[in-house]
Write a structure and sequence with these properties.
heterodimer, A: 543 residues, 22 helices, flat, B: 331 residues, alpha/beta, Rossmann fold, Helicase, Ruva Protein, domain 3, five-stranded parallel sheet, two-stranded parallel ribbon, 13 strands, 47% helix
Chain lengths: 543, 331
């Protein structure tokens, strides 16, 4: 009969193995964590550096950290969750302690139903060995060296945080630019617009206006920005959205003009009375809040006035309230009630009606302020649209310039290629390319636009440019619409004085060549080879 | 019971050391070979010794036989050696009454330790006469099977240089050898010791220190040593790694090996590991024990393919690569 190894021996072995397993898991977690931290920090540093060097749309640091943390936790749960790996711990302990698989063998023998005297003796020996082990010393907690790398990366990231924000250091003029990308200046402009519209909306709500124009514009702006961030909106669509939002904001201007005219009429009606002189002056100055305050003061002074004064005031108010001012219906009704009450010498009702008139003036004042803000927002939108249009225009011109350079490079005869300075000149003067494909009108692509593509684009300088750009933007030719070579030719011929030599004008024939090249099935790297082949087999002059 | 086991282990270790020390009095600088021979003996296996002439192959075997109180026979294998010369034959014997009877005349194989010197010089027919004896430990002559007295231990030698007129051992017979040990040329310091011992008037003589019963008891003790499944699994994976068409195959094996080791190779690893564990005072087999058995146990059980032969790949290099790349724990 084999002697049974006591539970104390088995628990001694298990206890040691569990502690070793804990240490192994801890080291494993630290190791994985160091890799994850290094990876995340390296990603953040890379993104930050790319943001400084080139113009890219980068995810926010918080998003990167949040996603990485979630992934790491999931990874840890996947790898560390579950039953303890005491077999693995036994292997680690054996290797670390030079035990020649004593604990591994003992752990396996312990779990067998059939045991022999030899296995029991082996377990007893292993238990004795296990009691003399110190798992924490056997498998010490190791802080991976990668944490030093992580620390260095963290330092770099902090230093990069102090880097001045500005335009990207590297400008790849030939690199395709993300058309849906707003510049930092444009994003700031957009934020200002949003702020103005929000404040206008607050004022409209305070004025209890039913038809809130700012709310509609606000909704359009939010939708457009969300779509742009989700890459569901192109620059052209964003421009269209901005125009519609602008139209919504400017809708109230007509009503506002009518209100201002009515106020002037009302002021003229009231200025005949000495009691209403100051009030009329305030109305003339469009200062309705001041006018409302004066109306309240007059209402409080009604009890001190004699009958004659009341009659005069009633007459003035009656005259003023007879105007047909649809934009100030509430004010007119209040003035009419005040006039009627004064005529009947009902001072309390007159005071109440004048208070109502003052409230109506306050509301009108808020509406005017709101419209003022909406007009400011509208102006900002206008500037932003111009900036975006110019950006588009510059990009298209640069891409055409790049295409021209490529074609010139492919051509064997250097004389046929347009010199780069001439390309720039012609591009700057708008003589090159198809106007129908440009964001702006031909002939107005100034050299500033090209420079603006490399630096920050500013607002358009002349109204003429703005109007023409709007016309072109409204036309919005489809991107796939093939340009008519005849139009190009005609457009070039319409120049009163030729500023570009005729051979540099892209004629229909040359355009067709370009079109043929763009659909060429021969891979670009073989084109030169094919060209040389055909040059080699061409008939010689003396043949 | 635990004390008995501890005593068994202690006795085993002491007796082994005693034999080793006694052999060491005669043989210089071949500790690994001596250990290999003794492990094979205790594991009930046979050994093929390979080495150039004159480096003491026969001397080792003779000394082992001297130290162990066992019967010893030597057969010098030659091309004209016949199977009957080894196993014995029925001869006509005349009794005192004048009656003639057939009587079995035992050959030199009926011994405890058999030195088969230069085994590759005999014809395959004669070599195969050893097959039954080595595996079954019996000899059949005519219709009669004769059982060999335990322990039966064959120590064969072969010279790897002079291959003309030799008959390389077939794979089936090679597989029956527990170990194939390579005896290397002694180092200079060992050469000095050999000169000092063998060029004087009296040469050192080993005493007999262990009898047949003790050896059989030691063999039984070695077989008692338990092996845990993960360690056994390691031995199996090592063996499977020598097979080119298994998922465990090592890249070198896939390239250079035609056939891998048989299950007998795994048995050798495990049994040899048990003896090695006892020699180190342990009650369990460790992966290290298995690794220490790998080269002598498997080097003669792998057959190289044409590419391996053409590239003159050393089987030991393949086994070392397997040992290096096979993890102790299965993935």
């Amino acid at each position: 009969m084999a002697p049974s190894s006591g539970s104390s021996e088995q628990s001694a072995i298990r206890g040691v193995l569990e502690r070793v397993d804990r240490q192994v898991r801890l080291n494993s977690i630290l190791d994985h964590m160091s890799i994850a931290v290094c990876f995340v920090l390296a990603t953040l540093v890379t993104v930050k550096l790319l943001g400084i060097l080139v113009n890219i749309r980068a995810p926010s640091n918080l998003n990167v950290v949040a996603i990485s943390t979630a992934l790491f936790v999931a990874f840890l749960l996947w790898t560390q969750y579950g039953a303890r790996h005491l077999g693995r711990a036994a292997v680690v302990a054996d290797n670390a302690g030079g035990l020649h698989d004593e604990l591994k063998s003992a752990y396996w023998f312990m779990r067998q139903e059939h045991r022999t005297a030899w296995t029991e003796t082996q377990v007893q020996r292993a238990a004795q060995t296990a009691r003399g082990l110190q798992p924490e010393r056997l498998v010490p907690t190791i802080v991976p060296q990668r944490f030093w790398i992580a620390l260095a990366l963290g330092g770099i990231l902090v230093l990069l945080g102090f880097a001045p924000s500005g335009p990207p250091l590297l400008a790849f003029t030939n690199a395709p630019v993300d058309p849906s990308r707003l510049t930092d200046a444009q994003e700031e402009q957009f934020e200002e617009i949003r702020d103005l519209v929000e404040r206008a909306q607050a004022l409209e709500e305070a004025a209890a206006e039913e038809d809130q124009l700012s709310a509609e514009a606000q909704q359009r702006l939010e939708d457009a920005m969300r779509a742009l961030e989700a890459d569901e909106l192109t620059m052209e669509e964003l421009l269209r959205e901005l125009r519609e939002a602008q139209n919504a904001l400017e809708e109230g201007n007509l009503e506002m003009s009518a209100m201002q005219e009515a106020l002037e009429d009302l002021a003229q009606d009231l200025e005949g009375s000495s009691e209403f002189a100051d009030l009329a002056e305030a109305m003339k100055n469009q200062d309705l809040s001041e006018a409302a305050e004066m109306m309240r003061q007059l209402a409080e002074q009604l009890s001190q006035m004699d009958a004659q004064q009341l009659a005069d005031m009633a007459e003035q108010l009656q005259q003023a309230a007879q105007g047909d001012q649809a934009s100030m219906e509430e004010l007119m009704r209040a003035l009419q009630e005040a006039a009627d009450a004064m005529s009947d010498e009902q001072l309390a009702e007159a005071m109440e009606a004048m208070q109502d008139a003052a409230d109506a003036m306050d509301q009108m004042s808020q509406r005017m302020d709101a419209q003022e803000m909406m007009n400011q927002a509208s102006q900002q939108m206008q500037a932003m649209q111009q900036s975006m249009s110019q950006q588009q225009l510059a990009q298209q011109m640069m891409s055409q310039q790049a295409m021209a350079s490529e074609q010139a490079g492919e051509s064997q005869e250097g004389a046929m290629a347009m010199p780069s300075d001439e390309v720039q000149k012609s591009a700057a003067s708008g003589d090159m390319g198809d106007p129908s494909q440009q964001g702006g009108p031909a002939g107005h692509a100034t050299s500033e636009a090209i420079e603006g593509a490399e630096m920050q684009l500013g607002a358009a300088t002349t109204l003429e440019v703005q109007l023409e750009m709007e016309v072109v933007a409204d036309e919005e030719p489809g991107p796939e619409e093939p340009p008519d070579p005849e139009d190009i030719f005609q457009e070039a011929s319409r120049q009163e004085t030729a500023r570009v030599e005729y051979r540099n004008v892209r004629g229909p024939q040359k355009y067709k060549e370009g079109s043929a090249l763009s659909v060429e099935r021969i891979p670009w790297r073989y084109r030169n080879l094919v060209k040389r082949y055909f040059l080699a087999i061409r008939p010689r002059e003396n043949q | 019971m635990t004390i008995e086991i501890e005593e068994q282990i202690s006795t085993f270790t002491d007796q082994f050391k005693l034999v080793r020390e006694e052999i060491g009095k005669v043989i210089v600088g071949a500790e690994e070979i001596i250990d290999g021979v003794l492990i094979s003996l205790l594991a009930k296996g046979h050994v093929l010794l390979e080495g150039i002439p004159g480096i003491g192959k026969t001397k080792i075997v003779a000394t082992v036989a001297d130290v162990l109180h066992l019967q010893f026979s030597r057969i010098q294998f030659t091309p004209d050696l016949m199977p009957g010369d080894i196993v014995g034959s029925n001869v006509v014997h005349e009794t005192e009454t004048g009656e003639k009877v057939l009587e079995f005349q035992k050959g030199p194989i009926h011994t405890n330790i058999l030195l088969a010197d230069e085994i590759n010089r005999a014809t395959p027919k004669t070599q195969s006469a050893l097959l039954e004896a080595m595996q079954e430990r019996t000899v059949t002559v005519g219709t009669t099977t004769h059982k060999l007295e335990p322990p039966f231990f064959v120590l064969a030698t072969q010279n790897p240089l002079e291959m003309e007129g030799t008959y390389p051992l077939p794979e089936a017979q090679l597989d029956r050898f527990f170990y194939k040990l390579r005896i290397m040329y002694p180092e200079p310091k060992h050469m000095h010791e050999i000169m000092d011992r063998t060029t004087k008037r009296e040469e050192p003589v080993a005493k007999t220190v262990l009898g047949r019963e003790e050896i059989l008891a030691m063999s039984d003790t070695a077989r008692e040593v338990p092996i845990a499944r993960p360690v056994q699994d390691y031995a199996i994976r090592l063996t499977l790694a020598t097979h080119p068409d298994t998922p465990y195959a090592h890249p070198m094996v896939s390239q250079f090996v035609r056939f891998g080791a048989s299950p007998r190779g795994t048995q050798t690893l495990v049994v040899g590991g048990k003896v090695n564990a006892l020699l180190n005072g342990r009650l369990h087999v460790s992966c290290e024990d298995i690794r220490s058995m790998l080269l002598p146990a498997l080097r003669h059980r792998m057959m190289l393919n044409f590419e391996g032969e053409a590239e003159r790949i050393d089987r030991d290099d393949i086994l070392r690569a397997i040992m290096k790349d096979t993890p102790e724990l299965a993935e």
